[in-house]
C-alpha cells in the first residue's frame, strides 16, 4: 500500500543535495526521496557472517585484550569494580579497573 506525503519547508541545501543525487542516479526527485527514506528507515538485512566479521573487526580495535580465562576469573570473583578514569600506557593496556590492572601486572 502506498500513500502520498507532501514535504514543506525543506531547507535549500537539502533540496539541492536531493536534486543532485536524483540527477546522478537518474531518478525523479520523488523516487530519490523514497530511496533516501528507505535507506534511513528500513533496516537492511545483514548476513550473520557479515555481522560477525564486523563485530570481530570492532573488537580487534579495542583494548584491553583479556583472554577468555581472564574474563572467567573476573566473573567468578563476583565483586563490583569501581571504574577509574580511562588511560592508556603506550597504547598497550587500557586500565579501567584497579583489580584488572593488578591482575595484568602480576600475570
Produce a short descriptive summary.
The protein has 107 residues and is mainly α.
Oligomer: single chain
Query: Which structural class fits the helix and strand makeup?
Result: mainly alpha
Compressed to H and E, one letter per element, the order equals HHHHEEH
Work out the number of β strands. Answer: 2
Give the proportion of residues in helices: 40-55%
Evaluate the radius of gyration: 25 Å
Strand line-up of the largest beta sheet: 1-2
Which residue ranges are poorly predicted, with pLDDT under 50 across at least 5 consecutive positions? Answer: 82-96
Q: How does the overall form come out from the CA principal axes?
A: elongated
Give the biggest beta sheet: 2 strands, antiparallel
What is the terminal separation in angstroms?
63 Å
Average pLDDT over all residues: 77
- Proportion in β-strands: under 5%
If helices are DSSP runs of H or I spanning 4 or more residues, what is the number of helices? 5
Amino acid at each position: 500500500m502506498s500513500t502520498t506525503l507532501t514535504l514543506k519547508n525543506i531547507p535549500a541545501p537539502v533540496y539541492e543535495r536531493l536534486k543532485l543525487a536524483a540527477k546522478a542516479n537518474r531518478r525523479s526527485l520523488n523516487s530519490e526521496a523514497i530511496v533516501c527514506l528507505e535507506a534511513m528507515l528500513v533496516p537492511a538485512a545483514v548476513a550473520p557472517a557479515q555481522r560477525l566479521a564486523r563485530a570481530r573487526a570492532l573488537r580487534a580495535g579495542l583494548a584491553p585484550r583479556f583472554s577468555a580465562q581472564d574474563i572467567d576469573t573476573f566473573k567468578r570473583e563476583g565483586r563490583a569494580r569501581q571504574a577509574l578514569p580511562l588511560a592508556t600506557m603506550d597504547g598497550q593496556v587500557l586500565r579501567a579497573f584497579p583489580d584488572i590492572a593488578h591482575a595484568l601486572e602480576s600475570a
